[in-house]
């Protein structure tokens, strides 16, 4: 029944006009902010850690907006899955430093990382219409939706590979072919796949995979996000190029550079970041869990 309901909702949101879709997503996000003390607590806790200089009124405003925008990211996804390449490209606007994305991300091999900021679904779909792309894919918790989501995300040409050694090998091969390897850089990796590095001044368990991929052939590394514009007017892409530290043999130094780039982008548009994610849940030994009530 849960899978049937989820499919029905995906169908509904997939057929609504984008402006109405995003408006409804905003209503759902505002409702979740009011009704979920847990989401508010996690969101405000993250904002307090990352923006200690801001007052509570600012955190409340940004936190509420963040949940609204994160919910829009969910509701707009099935609509984006139904659009062809031309329609997706028509929604794309270039923002500050867009030449980075063009020079490093759209010409030749590159590692492109898109954090949970703005519309990460649009970022992946639209990129695949511009350059051959291989991207890591983590199956949803509701396995009955796996095939639907995987096929929808791949419909613009992206090759999706699992978060396994086979998938990592496919990313390396994509770079060797001069293509783009796509990753989400701000998820907490499992097991020993990460290292602690500063993120907004606090230790965050951060992936080593991205820097390992880039280091092999010193592939350019670009981080980008697509800012959601109001009233369904499209998405504006912002990007930043990682510095030389991303190739460091010291995993902590490389992860620190990755987090610095993510932080730079988040500061441009903090209200569209996924602050409800427990980014600091895994802690160095002896440090308390900041989400424990």
Q: What does the model show?
A:
The chain has one domain. It has eleven helices and nine strands. Helix 1 crosses helix 4, helix 2 packs across helix 4 and helix 3 packs across helix 4. Helix content is 49%, strand content 16%. The strands form two sheets. A seven-stranded mixed β-sheet has the order 1-9-8-2-5-3-4, sandwiched between helices. Strands 6-7 form a two-stranded antiparallel sheet. The two termini are 33 Å apart. The mean pLDDT is 91. The chain is globular and about 45 Å long. It is α/β, with parallel strands linked by helices. Strand 3, helix 8 and strand 4 form a beta-alpha-beta unit.
Q: Which whole number gives the mean pLDDT?
A: 91
Query: How many domains?
Result: 1
Order of helix and strand elements from N to C terminus: HHHHHEHEHEHEHEEEHEEH
Question: Nearest-angstrom radius of gyration?
Answer: 18 Å
What percentage of the residues does DSSP assign to strands (E)? 15-25%
The secondary structure category is alpha/beta
Helix content: 40-55%
**DSSP summary: helix tally:** 11
Number of strands: 9
The coarse silhouette is globular
Q: Biggest sheet, strands in spatial order?
A: 1-9-8-2-5-3-4
How would you characterize the largest beta sheet?
Answer: 7 strands, mixed
Terminal-residue CA separation: 33 Å
Uncertain ranges: none
């Amino acid at each position: 029944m849960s899978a049937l309901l989820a499919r029905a909702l995906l169908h509904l949101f997939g057929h609504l006009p984008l402006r109405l879709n995003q408006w409804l997503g905003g209503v759902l996000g505002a409702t979740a902010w009011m009704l979920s003390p847990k989401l508010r607590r996690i969101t405000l806790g993250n904002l307090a850690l990352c923006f200690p200089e801001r007052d509570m009124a600012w955190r409340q405003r940004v936190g509420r907006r963040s949940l609204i925008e994160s919910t829009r990211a969910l509701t707009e996804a099935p609509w984006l899955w139904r659009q062809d390449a031309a329609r997706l490209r028509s929604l794309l606007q270039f923002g500050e430093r867009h030449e980075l994305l063009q020079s490093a991300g759209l010409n030749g091999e590159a590692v492109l990382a898109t954090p949970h900021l703005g519309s990460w679904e649009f970022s992946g779909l639209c990129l695949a219409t511009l350059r051959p792309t291989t991207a890591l894919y983590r199956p949803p918790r509701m396995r009955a939706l796996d095939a639907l989501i995987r096929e929808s995300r791949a419909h613009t040409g992206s090759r999706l590979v699992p978060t396994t050694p086979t998938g990592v090998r496919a990313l390396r091969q994509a770079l060797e072919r001069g293509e783009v390897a796509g990753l989400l850089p701000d998820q907490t990796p499992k097991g020993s796949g990460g290292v602690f590095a500063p993120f907004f001044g606090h230790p965050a368990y951060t992936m080593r995979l991205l820097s390992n991929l880039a280091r092999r052939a010193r592939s350019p590394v670009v981080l980008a996000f697509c800012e959601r514009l109001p009233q369904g007017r499209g998405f504006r892409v912002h990007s930043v190029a990682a510095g030389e530290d991303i190739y460091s043999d010291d995993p902590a130094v490389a992860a620190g550079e990755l987090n610095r780039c993510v932080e730079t982008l988040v500061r441009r548009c903090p209200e569209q970041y996924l602050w409800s994610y427990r980014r600091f849940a895994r802690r160095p030994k002896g440090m308390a869990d900041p989400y424990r009530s």
